[in-house]
C-alpha cells in the first residue's frame, strides 16, 4: 500500500532514540522528509546519517530540549528554513520520574506539565495554521496506555498524558473540516530503553529480579511478549498518512491487547 507520504514534510519530537526515532525512520522509509529532534546531538547526527543512507525520504536534525521555553519558536524557525512548512507533526515527549501520585512533589508536577503538556500545545499551535491553510495536515500525539488504564507507579505520567487526551479530541473536532486530523497513539510495553528503565525501577521497588519483573509483565500481555519499535512505528506511519484521512479524534492502542477494557 502506498501511504501517500512521499515528499511530505514531517517533524518528530524527541526522536533521537526509542519510539520517536522509530517513527521518524518509518516515515522516511515511506518517502517523507523528516526533522528529528532531541538533546543528544551525536545520536541525532548518527540517526540522520543512517536514514539518509537508506534513501527514500531524507532526514535533518535539530538539537533541542522541550524543557526550554524557547524551543517551540526555534522549531518553527528551523522547519520554515529547512522545509518551508509542515505536513506531519508527531508529538512525543520523555516520561516523568516513576512514582506514586500521592507522593508527587507539586513543584515536579508543575515542571513536568510544562514539558509534557504545554510544550506540545505550543509546538502544535505554531504549525496548525499552515496545515489548515494548505488543507492537509496530520497531528499525531504519542502518549501511553496509562491514559486508559493507569499504570502502577507511573502516577504522574498517567495524570499528565491524560490531559492531552481531552486536548487532542477537542482539536480533532475543531479542525477536521480543514483537512487536518488529530489522533493519539498509545504504546503498551514496547521494548525500548525507557521500558528497561521502568522494569528496573519496578524490580528495585519490589525486591524482585529484573528477569522476574519482565516475565510477569509479558505474561499479562495476550500476545505474550513485549512489542517491537518497528510494529509501533508502522502504526504511526499509517495514522499520519493520506490513507488514514477518515481516522480522526481517535486513540489507537498498540499494546498487544494488554489494556483490559473494551
Tell me about the largest β-sheet: 7 strands, parallel
Topology pattern, helix = H, strand = E: EHEHEHEHEHEHHHE
Return the structural class: alpha/beta
- Percent of residues in beta strands? 5-15%
Label the CATH architecture. 3-Layer(aba) Sandwich
Strands side by side in the biggest sheet: 3-2-1-4-5-6-7
Structure report:
With 262 residues, the chain is α/β, with parallel strands linked by helices. It has one domain (9-190, 227-254): Rossmann fold. Helices cover 47% and strands 14% of the residues. It contains eight helices and seven strands, in the order E-H-E-H-E-H-E-H-E-H-E-H-H-H-E. It has helices spanning 18-29, 41-54, 71-82, 106-134, 155-175, 193-206, 210-219, 229-239, and strands at residues 9-12, 33-38, 59-63, 88-91, 137-142, 180-187, 251-254. Strands 3-2-1-4-5-6-7 form a seven-stranded parallel sheet, with helices on both faces. Helix 1 (18-29) crosses helix 8 (229-239), helix 4 packs parallel to helix 5 (155-175) and helix 6 (193-206) crosses helix 7 (210-219). Belongs to the short-chain dehydrogenases/reductases (SDR) family. This is SDR family oxidoreductase. It comes from Hoeflea algicola.
Amino acid at each position: 500500500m502506498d501511504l501517500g507520504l512521499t515528499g511530505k514534510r514531517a517533524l518528530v519530537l524527541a526522536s533521537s532514540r526509542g519510539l520517536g526515532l522509530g517513527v521518524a525512520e518509518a516515515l522516511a522509509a515511506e518517502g517523507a522528509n523528516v526533522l528529528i529532534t532531541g538533546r543528544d546531538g551525536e545520536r541525532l547526527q548518527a540517526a540522520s546519517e543512517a536514514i539518509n543512507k537508506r534513501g527514500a525520504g531524507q532526514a535533518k536534525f535539530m538539537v533541542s530540549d522541550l524543557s526550554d521555553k524557547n524551543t517551540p519558536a526555534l522549531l518553527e524557525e528551523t522547519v520554515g528554513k529547512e522545509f518551508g512548512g509542515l505536513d506531519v507533526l508527531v508529538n512525543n515527549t520523555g516520561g516523568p520520574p516513576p512514582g506514586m501520585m500521592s507522593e508527587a512533589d507539586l513543584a515536579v508536577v508543575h515542571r513536568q506539565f510544562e514539558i509534557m503538556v504545554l510544550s506540545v500545545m505550543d509546538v502544535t499551535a505554531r504549525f496548525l495554521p499552515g496545515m489548515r491553510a494548505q488543507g492537509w495536515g496530520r497531528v499525531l500525539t504519542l502518549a501511553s496506555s496509562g491514559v486508559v488504564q493507569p499504570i502502577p507507579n507511573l502516577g504522574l505520567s498517567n495524570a499528565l498524558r491524560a490531559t492531552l487526551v481531552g486536548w487532542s479530541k477537542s482539536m480533532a473536532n475543531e479542525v477536521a473540516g480543514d483537512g487536518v486530523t488529530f489522533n493519539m497513539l498509545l504504546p503498551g510495553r514496547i521494548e525500548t530503553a525507557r521500558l528497561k528503565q521502568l522494569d528496573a525501577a519496578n524490580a528495585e521497588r519490589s525486591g524482585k529480579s529484573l528477569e522476574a519483573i519482565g516475565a510477569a509483565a509479558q505474561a499479562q500481555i495476550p500476545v505474550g511478549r513485549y512489542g517491537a519499535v518497528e510494529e509501533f512505528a508502522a502504526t504511526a506511519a499509517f495514522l499520519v498518512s493520506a490513507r488514514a484521512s477518515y481516522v480522526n479524534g481517535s486513540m489507537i492502542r498498540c499494546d498487544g491487547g494488554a489494556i483490559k477494557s473494551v
